[in-house]
Amino acid sequence: MSFTVAIDGPAASGKGTIARAVAAHFGFAHLDTGLLYRAVGKKVMIRGDSPEIAVQMARELTPDDLMADDLRTAEVAQAASKVASIPQVRSTLVDFQKTFAKQPNGAVLDGRDIGTVICPDADVKLFVVASAEVRAERRFKELSANDTNITLEYVLEDIKTRDARDAGRDVAPMTAADDAVVLNTSKLTIRQAIAAAVAVITDKRVVD
Ligand code: CDP
Predict the structure, then answer these.
(1) What pTM value is reported for the model?
(2) Which amino acids bring their CB within 6 angstroms of ligand 1?
(3) Model pLDDT for residues 59-115, shown as the tens digit of each residue
């Protein structure tokens, strides 16, 4: 029977790590929806920065595009956040995400609008938060492994700019669904955050 978990939250809040672990724990398929916007943002960086090109790139997106190994940089994240505010880019990507969510063996999707727009009827909704400083520290550790020039200040600025743009856009702004469980990971280790998410989902599966 299909079972859908929606995990949303601001930049680098830990939702991706939690989503991957939850998928492994329950045997669900996982879609990191940020990769869709990052892949479109990356193409726009190469092909030209206009809304028309962004929409065309979204239409032409293939699953292979999500496998590119250079989608995780802070520059691509900024480009992603800009294309993500274009309504037609978002609407072009809706069907793929909705179809993915209906996997027969369960699915977990993480992003910004999963619990509100993509899967408003999800069985479990989590909204993962942490302070901007904690999130910047975590993301800085990840990014500095591959980029020795990156600074903590730059990462903090990227996170704050994207959060403001993502929460302030007109279409599908980042916000917790009314029925989402808010999980603050500021003071949690990764293991504790995963355990908390697994507990919420297990409760729901037992009750149903
Ligand atoms: O990993 P991080 O939280 O930094 O970002 P991400 O989840 O990979 O998302 C990159 C950008 O894509 C975000 O800043 C959003 O602008 C956009 N996004 C979105 O608008 N809606 C989603 N469902 C997922 C990502």
Answers:
(1) 0.97
(2) 11-12, 16, 33-34, 37-38, 77, 80-81, 84, 111-113, 162, 166
(3) 999 999 999 999 999 999 999 999 999 999 999 999 999 999 999 999 999 999 999
DSSP characters over 110-160 = EESSIIIII-TT-SEEEEEE--HHHHHHHHHHHHHTT-TT--HHHHHHHHH
| Cα–Cα distances in angstroms (integers) from residue 180 to residues 1, 119, 122, in the given order | 22, 12, 10
Question: Probe ligand 1: pick from 5, 30, 98, 112, max atoms within 8 Å of CB?
Answer: 112
Integer Rg of the chain from CA: 16
Residue nearest ligand 1's atom 8 by CA: 34
Its CATH architecture, for the domain 4-200, is: 3-Layer(aba) Sandwich (3.40)
Q: Where are the domains of the chain?
A: 4-200
